[in-house]
Amino acid sequence: MLTCPICGQQMKGWSRSHLAKHNVSAAQFQALRIEAETGTPIADFLREVYVVQRLSTPDIFDRYGITYRRLKELLIANDIPLRTHSESVANQWTRDDGRRRATTARKMEDTNRRVLALRGNVAKRHDVRLKISAVKKANNPGLMPMLLTLRQWRLDNPTGAELTMIDALDAAGLVYEREYQVGRYFLDFAFVTRQVAIEVDGVGWHERAATKDAARDAWLTGQGWHIFRYTTRQVGQDAANCIQDVIAKLHVLGIDPPTLK
Q1: What is the mean pLDDT for each group of 10 consecutive residues in the chain (261 residues)?
Q2: Using CA atoms, how far apart are residues 255 and 253, in angstroms rounded to an integer?
Q3: Exposed e or buried b for every residue in 71-97, given b needs 16+ CB within 10 A?
Q4: How far, in Å, CA of 231 to CA of 236, rounded?
Q5: Which among 31, 96, 149, 208 has the fewest CB atoms less than 10 Å away?
Q6: pTM for the whole thing?
Q7: Contact 115, 124 (CB under 8 A)
Q8: Ramachandran angles phi, psi of 190, nearest 5°
Q9: By C-alpha distance, which of 209, 216, 230 is closest to 184?
């Protein structure tokens, strides 16, 4: 049941005749409903769910019953920039729990099999592709510019878990840098003077990239770095506890956490 935020009438859903009765548009009605249900001004609500939490439009519909059309009208009315298509796609991948990547990987594998069957393209074979990739990484003048561009994008578009970790690090008064470069790798959070890194891993992504992460960590360890990894679930549940865990481990190693003077 839906409660009209204007007259208090209980309805199964809003109707055009009811909107006409109060002389409000569908978007205005939704704004009033959200404000009544959350106790938050609609502009603040939109910034929280769309900009800070970066919820996808399907998530916003599932949680708050706002369709994409109404959401778009409300965002424009409140001077909140709409995401570009590329930003929307990037946001979906960032929030992926692993199922989207798994589905995409299966589709790509099926496509590659069909290509091999039809064309017999040796370069599409998995072992050959790995060799080509290794050569490109070893001698690819365009690799680092691309990696630096991706780094800047991550700096400008932190994930929800990263925002939570930022708040926890700031609350603990620790000095850190985001996306700190070591060789060809970039660390999520780095205590640079202590050579300590904190990595925030998406659960599904980390499980599939475990081998690469292990090789990466081994190289960084060889450079004198200590790597501490936490999943997005751990950070979301209690980021402050993750920070205290890092500090405790540093004390065991005899390393003083870098705090603000």
Answers
A1: 83 81 89 92 93 89 90 92 82 74 82 67 71 70 78 89 94 95 94 96 63 87 95 92 95 92 62
A2: 6
A3: bebbbeebeeeebeeeeeeebeebbbe
A4: 9
A5: 149
A6: 0.49
A7: yes
A8: -130, 130
A9: 216
Determine the topology of domain 144-253 in CATH: Endonuclease; Chain A (3.40.960)
Instruction: Quote the CA–CA distance of 155 and 149 in Å, as a whole number.
Output: 10
